[in-house]
Design goal:
single chain; 169 residues; mainly beta; Chitinase A, domain 3; Thrombin, subunit H; 2 domains; 4-stranded antiparallel beta sheet; 3 helices; 11% helix; globular
């Protein structure tokens, strides 16, 4: 009998996210992403529901309206400032910056544009305002171990250090 994806099953999959308007691949995960179903929701709830009942070897496509997931774009979260006001370590497109407001809430911003004089950051989720398709391939479905359930995903084995002598300080 083939295992299917249900609560407490360990699942490995690969996926890519394609913008339906442009056909551009926005994200691709080509290495196996492992998680315990129903314990660690690594993808949107709609994608997780669509995975229910699938087995290893199956592929699927799930269309998502990212406005429903992340809300509409908020242009007040797009900030441009003079580059000299930005610390050196943030002066690269693609860098993430975590900021905290007066109430202690954090938000992640992404450096989206930079020129000789200015730098622009965007606090919107990069998928805001897009219609996308998640294309998924299920690689593995099996019973999760107790350790995997506790961790919500794969548990790394520690290296065997028997016979390794400590280095004196």
């Amino acid at each position: 009998m083939t295992d299917t994806i249900t609560h407490n099953k360990y699942v490995e999959l690969k996926y890519r996210v394609v913008d339906t308007k442009s056909g551009q691949v926005l994200t691709a995960v080509d290495f196996p992403l492992g998680y315990v179903h129903g314990v660690n929701d690594v993808l949107s709830s709609q994608v997780m529901m669509e995975l229910e009942g699938k087995a290893a070897g199956e592929t699927m496509s799930v269309e998502l309206d990212c406005n429903k997931l992340f809300g509409p774009r908020d242009e007040s979260l797009v900030i441009t400032d003079y580059i000299e006001n930005v610390p050196e370590e943030y002066r690269e497109v693609g860098t993430t910056i975590v900021m905290e407001n007066e109430q202690g809430k954090t938000r992640t911003f992404l450096v989206t544009r930079m020129d000789e004089k200015t730098l622009t950051i965007d606090g919107n989720n990069p998928l805001c305002g897009r219609q996308v398709v998640f294309e998924l391939e299920v690689l593995t479905v099996r019973d999760a171990t107790e350790a995997e359930i506790a961790a919500g995903g794969p548990v790394e084995k520690r290296p065997d250090l028997k016979g390794v002598k400590p280095v004196p300080l």
